[in-house]
Design brief:
Layout (H helix, E strand, L loop, with lengths): L2 H10 L37 H9 L4 H10 L6 H13 L4 H29 L4 H4 L18 H16 L4 H18 L4 H23 L6
Helix pairs in contact: 1-5, 3-8, 4-5, 5-7, 5-9, 7-8, 7-9, 8-9
C-alpha cells in the first residue's frame, strides 16, 4: 500500500474501521511507529481506581459534553482537525501553496501519530473500560481494540501542536481543543484518563517532529 493511500486512510475513513496492523505502517517523518513508544500505562496514572473514576465522570456529562462527544466522534479522529485546518487557512486567505503546506503538515502529523498510537496499543493491549466492566455502556460505538493510548487524544495532540506552529496566535485555543477532544472520550466512556494523558503527550511529540520538518522547508523565511 502506498504512503498516499495510507495517509488518505488515516484522515478520511469512518471512525469504527479498525486496522490492527497500523502500528507497523511506514511513517513519514518518524523513523517508525516505535520511535516514541510509550511506557507502561502506570506511568500516566493507570490504577485500579480509574474505572470507578470514569463511571463517576460519565455521570457529569451535560448537554454540552454530549455535543462534544458527537462532534469529536464524527468520522476518523483526524476528521475535525482537517476541517479546522481548512477553516483557518480560508479565514486568513492563505495562498494556495501555504494552504497545501498546512494541510500536508497537519495531516502528515496525524498519520504518523496514528501509527505511533497503534504501535503502543499493540504493545500494551490494554482492555477498554467496557471490556473490563461489561456493565459500563459507552455513549458511542466502540470497537474492541486496545485502549492505551487514546487514538483521538494522540491525533489531537499532534494536530494541535502543528496548528500552533502554523498559526501561533491561536496556539492556546488549539491546545484547548485537543484537551476537549481527549476529554470527550472520557465522557463517552471509551477510554481511561491515563489513555488520554498518554495520547496527548505522544501526539505532541509527533507534532514537534513535524514542526522541525516544517521549519526546514524554508517557508518560515
Amino acid at each position: 500500500m502506498s504512503l498516499f493511500v495510507l495517509l488518505i486512510t488515516a484522515t478520511a475513513v469512518p471512525g469504527q474501521n479498525v486496522e490492527p496492523a497500523a502500528g507497523t505502517w511506514p511513517t513519514l517523518v518518524l523513523s517508525s511507529g516505535r520511535q516514541y513508544r510509550l511506557t507502561e500505562p502506570s506511568s500516566y496514572g493507570a490504577n485500579s481506581g480509574e474505572l470507578a473514576w470514569l463511571r463517576s465522570f460519565m455521570t457529569q456529562a451535560d448537554a454540552n459534553a454530549v455535543a462534544q462527544i458527537a462532534y469529536w466522534d464524527a468520522g476518523s479522529p483526524a476528521y475535525r482537525w482537517v476541517q479546522i485546518t481548512l477553516q483557518e487557512a480560508l479565514s486568513r486567505n492563505l495562498a494556495a501553496p501555504l494552504t497545501t503546506r498546512a494541510l500536508a503538515l497537519v495531516s502528515g502529523a496525524m498519520y504518523d501519530a496514528t501509527v505511533a498510537a497503534w504501535d503502543s496499543k499493540s504493545t500494551f493491549n490494554r482492555q477498554r473500560p467496557a471490556q473490563a466492566d461489561t456493565s459500563l455502556v459507552p455513549r458511542v460505538l466502540s470497537a474492541s481494540v486496545p485502549s492505551y493510548p487514546s487514538e483521538h487524544a494522540t491525533v489531537a495532540g499532534a494536530a494541535a501542536s502543528v496548528l500552533g506552529y502554523l498559526f501561533p496566535d491561536k496556539a492556546a485555543q488549539f491546545t484547548s481543543l485537543a484537551e476537549e477532544a481527549g476529554r470527550s472520550r472520557l465522557f463517552a466512556g471509551t477510554n481511561y484518563p491515563s489513555d488520554v494523558s498518554a495520547g496527548l503527550e505522544l501526539g505532541r511529540l509527533v507534532g514537534n517532529a513535524f514542526i522541525v520538518a516544517g521549519r526546514g522547508d524554508g517557508s518560515d523565511a
